[in-house]
Design goal:
This protein is an all-alpha fold. The two termini are 61 Å apart. It has one domain. The longest helix has 68 residues.
């Protein structure tokens, strides 16, 4: 035989508190999920735009380099010297970037990434 006690006011308050805590946890988890999705969407769209701009810039550089190479070659009176001069120019730029990569480029890129994902 089981004795049943009438529900007291403290039991209903405790159930109400548990319900509110569950709702709060669900809301916090949903908010975290939505913030993560928002940051990921902003990051991916930023990457997509930068990739398109990089491709366009690459095409401009390639075509301008070919034009400059041909122009230099015509000025020098042979067919190949302009291409060697332009490639030497790019080699010099590549060496400069290689030697300053740690002190300037890596730190600035890391700072940009951190700023992007920590700012709301």
């Amino acid at each position: 035989m089981r004795l049943e006690y009438p529900e007291t006011q403290s039991d209903s308050k405790a159930e109400e508190l548990v319900s509110h805590v569950k709702d709060y946890i669900h809301t916090v988890v949903e908010l975290f999920r939505l913030r993560a999705i928002h940051k990921m969407a902003i990051g991916l769209s930023s990457v997509a735009v930068r990739m398109v701009l990089l491709m366009l810039f690459t095409w401009v550089i390639v075509l301008a380099s070919i034009g400059a190479s041909i122009w230099i070659s015509e000025r020098m009176g042979d067919r190949y010297s302009g291409f060697f001069i332009v490639s030497g120019f790019y080699l010099a730029i590549a060496l400069i970037v290689y030697f300053i990569r740690d002190s300037f480029i890596k730190q600035k890129v890391a700072d940009k990434i951190i700023d992007h994902f920590t700012n709301e």
